[in-house]
Amino acid sequence: MRFIKWWFPLAAVVLLAAVVLLAAAALALDQYQAAAAPPADYVLVIDPGHGGADGGAVAADGTLESDINLDIALRLEALCRFWGVDAVLTRSGDDIDYPAQADTIARKKVADQHARLALINGTPGAVLLSIHQNKYPAASPHGIQVFYGPVAGSDQLAVLTQGNLTGQLCPDNRRVAAPADKSIFLMKNAQCPAVLVECGFLSNPDELLALQSDTYRTKLSVVLLGSYLQYIRGLQA
Questions:
Q1: How far does the chain reach from its first CA to its final CA, in angstroms?
Q2: Integer Cα distance of 237 and 226 in angstroms
Q3: Out of 54, 69, 116, 123, which residue is the most buried by the measure of CB atoms under 10 Å away?
Q4: What does residue 126 show for φ and ψ, rounded to 5 degrees?
């Protein structure tokens, strides 16, 4: 069974709070906190891509995309609780309860995707943020990229998130927000604003090293939350 490093002792919570407050200056979390109550009309649906029988992309050292996705998602969900932001996870661990008829990996993937979609579309005021990692046969491709679904507001959230992630974490990144491919089931079928964040390339040694870092994963979650709050604040203005 794979082990996810996810433990927040008191000292770590204090340190995390400090990180959040520092990031707030750059991402207007401080303005949001001063100007409005938590966005009760909206719910951030955090989707850690893959999981269970589907490990997603695999790095050269065996690191699974699904593990990184989940770790970042759990950090983001913890930050949401810290700030009083409504959030729900499409999965909170690596064990997925598949229906009995899902007797192959392909059928398990399909069943899982439909279950996640039901949760997303059944959540009033949902805003979907799906967390993934990229991979390419060559080691040179790099950079964070945000993709968006067809529902109104998705592109706005994607452009905002792309700009914040690039500005705060990878200023040399030339990738831009782009429409999600129609083959991506959740992006195509979610009935709410939806973005998919490719946080980095598991095939790039430098990005893999960063993505394996607790500090970098926390930074990612901070910027993702800040971007979501900026987006919601814009809707409420």
A1: 47
A2: 16
A3: 69
A4: -70, 145
Beta-carbon count within 10 A of 73 CB: 26
What CATH architecture applies to the domain 10-236? 3-Layer(aba) Sandwich (3.40)
Query: Packing angle between helix 10-27 and helix 154-169, nearest 10 degrees?
Result: 110
- Number of Cβ atoms within 10 Å of the Cβ of 237: 7
* Secondary structure letter of residue 47 according to DSSP: E
Domain locations in the chain as residue ranges: 10-236
User: In angstroms, rounded to a whole number, what is the distance separating the alpha carbons of residues 75 and 219?
Assistant: 10
* Span 184-233, pLDDT tens digits: 999 999 999 999 999 999 999 999 999 999 999 999 999 999 999 999 98
Answer whether 86's CB lies under 8 Å from 40's CB: yes
How far apart (Å, rounded) are the C-alpha atoms in residues 28 and 39?
15
pLDDT (tens digit per residue) in 106-128: 999 999 999 999 999 999 999 99
Amino acid (one-letter) located at 213: S
Global confidence as pTM? 0.85
Phi-psi region of 28 (alpha: psi -120 to 50; beta: other; left: phi over 0): left
Give CA–CA dist 141/118, Å, rounded. 34
| DSSP character string of 159-199 | HHHHHHHHHHH-TT-----EEPPTT-HHHHH-SS-EEEEEE
Q: Are 6 and 12 in contact (CB under 8 A)?
A: no
* Crossing angle of the two packed helices 65-83 and 214-236, in degrees rounded to 10: 50
Pairing of strands 43-48, 178-179: unpaired
Contact 237, 95 (CB under 8 A): no
